[in-house]
Request: fold
Amino acid sequence: MIKLCLLGNSHAGALKLGWDIVKSNFPNCDVTVFAAPGKRIDDLQVRGRRLVADSVRLRRFLKRISGVGGSFSVRRYDRFLVCGSGFHAGVPAGFLAKARIDTEPKDERQPLSLPLFMRMVEADLRAASAILTVEKLRRITRKPIGLIPLPLRIEQSEWAAEKAILGSGTPQKLADCFAAAARTIADSLNCEMFTQPPFTKAGPLRSKSEYAKGSTRLVGNRLHGSDNVVHMNAAYGAALWHVILADPAWSGEKAGGAVVAKACDAEPDAIPAPAFSSFARASFESGSAHVRASRSRTSVSEPIPSRGHAPGA
Amino acid sequence: MRSPYEALGPAAFWRTGVVGHEPGAIPDLYKRKFPITPAMGVATAGSCFAQHIARNLRSRGFSVIDAEPAPGRLDEKSANEFGYGIYSARYANIYTARQLLQVVREAFGEFAPADPVWEKDGRYYDAMRPSVEPYGLASPAEVTDHREYHLGKVREVVTSADVFVFTLGLTETWLHAASGTVYPTAPGTLAGHFDPAVYRFHNFSFRDVYEDLSAFMDLAERLNPDIRFLLTVSPVPLTATASGEHVLAATIYSKSVLRAVAGQLFHERANVEYFPSYEIITSSLSRGAYFESNLRSVRADGVKAAMDTFFAQHDVGNNELQISAGKKPAPVAENRNDDEEDELVCEEELLDTFAQ
Reply:
């Protein structure tokens, strides 16, 4: 049995609900969710080999969502998944209110080179809750960690920062910037990236709205308001699980169904963390902003049947 | 009176004015001509050593103008790598008075540089500041676009500064032979290609530097009548010389010219101050102890000695305010480690790689 620990913010809700849909397909995998809305997960602190909730509000959420107290040991889990505030492909667009990159027409905003823009994106992403959480984990474990960017905003979303550039060639460049910066960070922390399944996207910076319909809050099973443009539903969560668990090392399955990686239970830290080559910056330095997709998992090309949970249900 | 020297004070005599004193506490070595206060907008520019001055002014709470700040959440190292946070605008090191005059004239439409875009490996660089985009830009048009934005910030600096601090660094330069446009680095060092038919070496004379600096001050005063100037001379020796002379002799020539021009302008103009950081660091009083083992880079304690002398004249009110508010005055350089010199952005040092 592979024991997965999911740490995150409100977006962990879709994964939590999605797991209920797909878990029967992965009998050798067990998932525990530790999540709290917003940046509350920042209140996790390292104490010995444990992560400890350092605030009442976080302890309260962890109790309600995972049923555990205010701390847990990394020894109990084989692998970790992290999603959290600030780690998403919309970050580059946020800079475009005051700055522009080479694909945009000349105006009063500050012109930035793509290598510098890339560096800015990376600096911003490194301050994200998700990355801070991974850094804490890395201080106490070498076990595999998967990094999950937050989903893209839905098609109908009107975000002022993006409005001016949607429809130009810039969104793809921004998405490439995010992917490259995220990968650089993931490599530096020896993490694997699990990116949004392509079939859930409506362009480089948008999600299909059907994957937000019927999304519920992390706690209380209440629907998000009609103004929700960022939280996804159970179908999205299920799709993402299929991306993650397509790798037997994460699902505990072999092609034939046999359990793998049982050694995790015996000596978890003996599992070598994935070693990946850093290429993102090199690709930019060579003048190419195109991001190779050799490492991140977006391999699921077809929608996952929702098994009775229609998107938005 | 038997001798005109009889009535002179201790500062006039080497034995009493210098011998026995700490290099950073030489009485009366520096007496301010006008106060520089934390409330004043201070612009900085110059050669590598000017970065120390800017950093120390900032650390003491002076209002160092940053008209072109680093975007986003770039850390200091990344910002510096891209030319941000070093000087008041992103003009990188300005080694010669001619270079300073050029950029200010260009900012106000009085000058257009020749051959302003250099190429390297399919990327394009601003020839007037090739270090600020270490990976270059995608096209010559993008270089022009970025430069236009930068020149707008230079205008802001010149028109808003109460005090313009300039550290004179070099007399040697490489210029475009036909137009006289000077560049901060030799073509082919960071980018571009050296063609002896297009570019040539030039070593500025006293008259050249004096006229260039005077012209810069005249222009700045026209745009900003209340502006004042603080001149310093970089104590950092030349990394290399193309003059044909020995590098030691070339260094002494260069520094002597720059020091003489600074002194001339200090005496001629009421709004020009000279601060003797060069003397504090290079004089025989310090016995060379303020230089690193390469006899070139200035040690942190050398910077501290110079800045202590400066702030003794200019930071009195600020310290009093801080003390009265129960705050400890900000440290000056003392807490910086000895690697401060390593953090300087100094493209001139690239020449060292050509040494046999």
Q: What stands out?
A: The interface with chain A takes residues 71-75, 78, 82, 122-123, 133-139, 142, 145-146, 149 of chain B (CB under 8 Å).
